[in-house]
Automatic annotation (TrEMBL):
<dbReference type="InterPro" id="IPR051166">
    <property type="entry name" value="Threonine_Synthase"/>
</dbReference>
<keyword id="KW-0791">Threonine biosynthesis</keyword>
<comment type="similarity">
    <text>Belongs to the threonine synthase family.</text>
</comment>
<dbReference type="GO" id="GO:0030170">
    <property type="term" value="F:pyridoxal phosphate binding"/>
</dbReference>
<dbReference type="InterPro" id="IPR029144">
    <property type="entry name" value="Thr_synth_N"/>
</dbReference>
<dbReference type="GO" id="GO:0009088">
    <property type="term" value="P:threonine biosynthetic process"/>
</dbReference>
<dbReference type="InterPro" id="IPR036052">
    <property type="entry name" value="TrpB-like_PALP_sf"/>
</dbReference>
<feature type="modified residue" description="N6-(pyridoxal phosphate)lysine">
    <location>
        <position position="112"/>
    </location>
</feature>
<dbReference type="Pfam" id="PF00291">
    <property type="entry name" value="PALP"/>
</dbReference>
<keyword id="KW-0028">Amino-acid biosynthesis</keyword>
<dbReference type="Pfam" id="PF14821">
    <property type="entry name" value="Thr_synth_N"/>
</dbReference>
<dbReference type="Pfam" id="PF24857">
    <property type="entry name" value="THR4_C"/>
</dbReference>
<dbReference type="InterPro" id="IPR001926">
    <property type="entry name" value="TrpB-like_PALP"/>
</dbReference>
<protein>
    <recommendedName>
        <fullName>Threonine synthase</fullName>
        <ecNumber>4.2.3.1</ecNumber>
    </recommendedName>
</protein>
<feature type="domain" description="Tryptophan synthase beta chain-like PALP">
    <location>
        <begin position="87"/>
        <end position="318"/>
    </location>
</feature>
<dbReference type="GO" id="GO:0004795">
    <property type="term" value="F:threonine synthase activity"/>
</dbReference>
<comment type="pathway">
    <text>Amino-acid biosynthesis; L-threonine biosynthesis; L-threonine from L-aspartate: step 5/5.</text>
</comment>
Length: 464
């Protein structure tokens, strides 16, 4: 399998190369040159398989010859062996046709673990036997950071520098990152919001001298391997609800468009997906883009769903490329326009292509609260606010097929917001129970390129 950049001019890479590169050198994102498909029989054969085995079957076509099937199985078994639920991503029924897909049973209690536990192992495998040392730079609005840190802490050939927006993540989210004291882990609190942190990360990749000198790589969903691993749970859930004979709709709490793009990939691979609902909070750029073709930045508003307080959704670029005839030059021009003005219109082809599969909904605080209360009263399920956003959208969908809401975080990560909405304060699970007694370590920096790159230069062990 070969990977092309969405902007058309970066070198074409294999799976190993795309994983280690993270972001393409022309500023684009890597995407497979064609979507592999699973036949109806192959999908039917997934019934009854373990999560790890499902992962092998779904991901093998993307890996090409970078790993043998046996090697991929070994990595999946190790990655998903660290989850606290035997089903890894269990389905829970809420109502006749409303389901929750619980994606938060990994070590850091959010869906990010599903991909990052595997990505940590992939990095290690691909670095073994080389003299390469990776410097991972990442941006987090709360959940990617801790999942990535857990996945790479203590690994010899990796340094990780994780930027979070100061004061805009919950105490639990921050402590899950800053109490990991391994010498290769460097947390940075920057002045600004998540978009500022993400823009700094992209600027570091776009400074080719800096990127090459420190062998930069990415753990955000700009890294293709992240998305590939997230495709698996769409298959796993849909098969349990009757696929390929029956279609399923998914409602996805959306920020950086990674999770829902993985659903799009599953559909392109042949999974019968009736609808993908892009559920946003009041930071609704994606809802405006999908409902009216208007992709234009607004001011980021802080909400009880901080992980979705995002206006620039990296993976939207992958969708626009795929729906725009895979024309890298045209997409590069469209993205340059957006980067210059903060606004762009989708082309007719992009809007119509998206409308065939995607719906979108903007959910405010009241509707989110009502959905969280409904889950508690109707089904005894305490859900986190991000999941509440998607459940509100799922309940508004007029659907004749099962609707699966992706439950992206454990409610204990957002105790205050959950208590405000439901009156119940979820306890911290045992695996993070002493979080508030642990020592914290992080650096506070202005959100400027020079401050952050200066800190990295002073602390990275990179070879290059
Ligand atoms: C709990 C939670 N829900 C939803 C999202 C949004 O997912 P995505 O950025 O893949 O759209 C995030 C952040 O990524 C998150 O941490
Ligand atoms: N919500 C995310 C933001 C980063 O998204 P990613 O999926 O691109 O890593 C977070 O919690 O950090």
């Amino acid at each position: 399998m070969r990977y092309h950049s969405t902007r058309g001019t970066a070198p074409v890479l294999d799976f190993r190369g795309a994983t280690l590169a993270g972001l393409a050198s022309d500023g684009g994102l890597y995407i497979p040159e064609a979507w592999p498909t699973l036949s109806a029989d192959a999908i039917r054969d997934l019934a009854g398989l373990s999560y790890a085995e499902t992962a092998v079957r779904v991901m093998l076509p993307f890996v090409g010859d970078a790993l043998t099937e046996g090697e991929l199985r070994e990595l999946c078994t190790a990655a998903y062996g660290r989850f606290s639920h035997a089903a890894v991503t269990p389905l829970v029924q809420l109502d006749h046709d409303q389901w929750l897909l619980e994606l938060f049973h990994g070590p850091t209690l959010a869906f990010k673990d599903v991909a990052l536990q595997l990505l940590g192992l992939l990095f290690e495998r691909f670095l073994t036997g080389t003299d390469k040392h990776l410097t991972i730079v990442g941006a987090t609005s709360g959940d990617t950071g801790s999942a990535a840190i857990d996945a790479v802490a203590g690994r010899e050939k990796i340094d990780i520098f994780m930027l979070h927006p100061a004061g805009r993540v919950t105490d639990i989210q921050r402590r899950q990152m800053t109490t990991v004291l391994a010498p290769n882990v460097h947390n940075i609190a920057i002045d600004g919001n998540f978009d500022d942190a993400q823009a700094l990360v992209k600027a570091m990749f776009n400074d080719r001298a800096f990127a090459d000198r420190y062998s930069l790589s990415a753990v955000n969903s700009i890294n293709w391997a992240r998305l590939m691993a997230q495709v698996v749970y769409y298959f796993y859930a849909a098969v349990r609800l009757g696929a390929p004979e029956r279609s399923v709709a998914f409602s996805v709490p959306t920020g950086n468009f990674g999770d829902v793009f993985a659903g799009y990939v599953a559909a392109r691979m042949g999974l019968p997906v009736a609808k993908l609902i892009v559920a946003t909070n009041v930071n609704d750029i994606l809802h405006r883009a999908l409902s009216a073709g208007d992709y234009s930045k607004g001011q980021v508003q802080a909400t009880p769903t901080p992980s979705m307080d995002i206006q620039v959704s990296s993976n939207f670029e992958r969708l626009l490329y795929d729906l725009g005839n895979r024309d890298g030059a045209a997409l590069a021009a469209q993205m340059a326009g957006f980067e210059g003005t903060g606004a762009m219109r989708l082309t007719n082809m992009q809007s119509q292509g998206a409308a065939a599969l995607f719906g979108s909904d903007r959910v405010d605080l009241d509707d989110m609260t009502r959905a969280m209360r409904w889950a508690a009263d109707r089904a005894g399920q305490i859900i986190d606010p991000h999941t509440g956003i998607a459940l509100a959208a799922a309940r508004r969908l007029d659907s004749d097929v099962p609707v699966v809401t992706l439950a992206t975080a454990h409610p204990a990560k957002f105790t205050d917001a959950v208590e405000r909405a439901t009156g119940t304060r979820p306890p911290l699970p045992n695996r993070v129970g002493d979080l508030f007694e642990r020592e914290e370590r992080y650096e506070s920096l202005p959100g400027t390129f020079d401050a952050v790159t200066g800190f990295i230069a002073a602390h990275a062990q990179a070879s290059a």
